[in-house]
Amino acid sequence: MISGSTILFYLLAALTLTCGLLSVSTRQIFRAAIYLLFSLIGIAGIYFWLQYEFIAAVQIVVYVGGIVVLIIFSIFLTQQAGEKLAKQKTDRKIFSALAAFCGFALTMLQVYQHTFYESSEAAAPTTVFNIGKKMMAVDNGGYALPFEVISMLLLAAMIGCIVIALRSKPETK
Amino acid sequence: MMEPGLYHFLFISAALFFIGVYGFLTRRNLITMLMSIELILNSVNLNFIAFNKYLWPGKMDGLFFTLFIIAIAAAEAAVAIAIIINLYRSHQSIDVENAEDLKY
After folding, report:
1. Contact (CB<8Å) B29/A9
2. Within 13 Å and on the Cβ side, how many CA atoms surround B84?
């Protein structure tokens, strides 16, 4: 008997992988961005399925609401409407597919040969309260230092973006 | 059909990673290459979450790594798009074959 949650998992996995594959193979760049969007939504669905609701929400807010919108804006700024991407050389495609497939086969072979040992600890509740408490903790096992490092990185990225965008327009060659 | 377990997640994650690698190797447009990198980063996140859920349910390290990777990915995408748009301004093209001078 197949339970509903199993079917849901396979549907989400199929959505993620199909849209990911279409995203790297379509020749229309705007469609590639939309397929990427659905692939990311599928991953958010998998996080929901695993009951990591906070990560799923962050995934939707940051990736779907932030990064994909940014990518779509940059497509509008840099591409002519209706223009397709240049066709790639067939031998490059074949060798890339071969390299990717060999890497995938090798990885899966290693994974299936390895035995994973599950820890017998009781599951920690992944509520927002627990996540926030752990993120601000400075004692052993807390994440206050990486949190501060990430905030410095975000500040540096913000300043870097402004500096890059402010640079005066150089003469075209 | 089998009940989903750790190996199913590792399969999805590895497949998504190598889809991203394939895209990165075949694409010659900077924005589509950036999209492939996003796929690769997402497969890593999925891996962390699956290990956290199935192997160490009592800890939350995988969850925090995922959170930090998402934050870094957002910063990386913003900087990359700023560079791409600046490149487009000076070269009128975002094809990697045309972006061959380091300085001018």
Report:
1. no
2. 26
Closest CA to B77 of A28, A152, A72: A72
Confirm whether B103 is domain-assigned.
Answer: no
- Per residue in A36-75, pLDDT (tens digit) is 999 999 999 999 999 999 999 999 999 998 999 999 999 9
In a domain, B101, yes or no: no
Q: Is residue B50 part of a domain?
A: yes
What CATH number is attached to the domain comprising B53? 1.10.287.3510
Task: Report chain A's mean pLDDT, rounded to a whole number.
Answer: 88
Where do the domains of chain A lie? 7-94, 123-168
Domain count along chain B: 1
pLDDT in tens, B10-36: 999 999 999 999 999 998 889 999 999
Burial of A45 (0-12, 13-18, 19+ CB in 10 A): buried
Q: What percent of chain A has pLDDT over 90?
A: 55
If you classify domain A7-94 with CATH, what class do you get? mainly alpha
How many other CB atoms are found less than 10 A from the CB of residue A128? 10
- The answer to whether A118 contacts chain B (CB < 8 Å) is yes
Domain-embedded: residue B73:
yes
User: What is the pTM assigned to this prediction?
Assistant: 0.90
Cβ neighbours of B7 in A, within 8 Å: 111-112
